[in-house]
Amino acid sequence: MYHKFDYYLKNYNVIGCVGCGRCIKACPAGQDIRKTLQSILENTAKLK
Description:
Blueprint: H1 2-12, H2 22-26, H3 33-47
């Protein structure tokens, strides 16, 4: 999962996530990584 949000962004300036939700179904904790990352992006933007 790391490569979709770090490697692609650093090397291609795009996020590799397509929003399919497959990682949410596979997550044993039921975390929605899309919501988590959106929150991080919003909070980072507020700091700038």
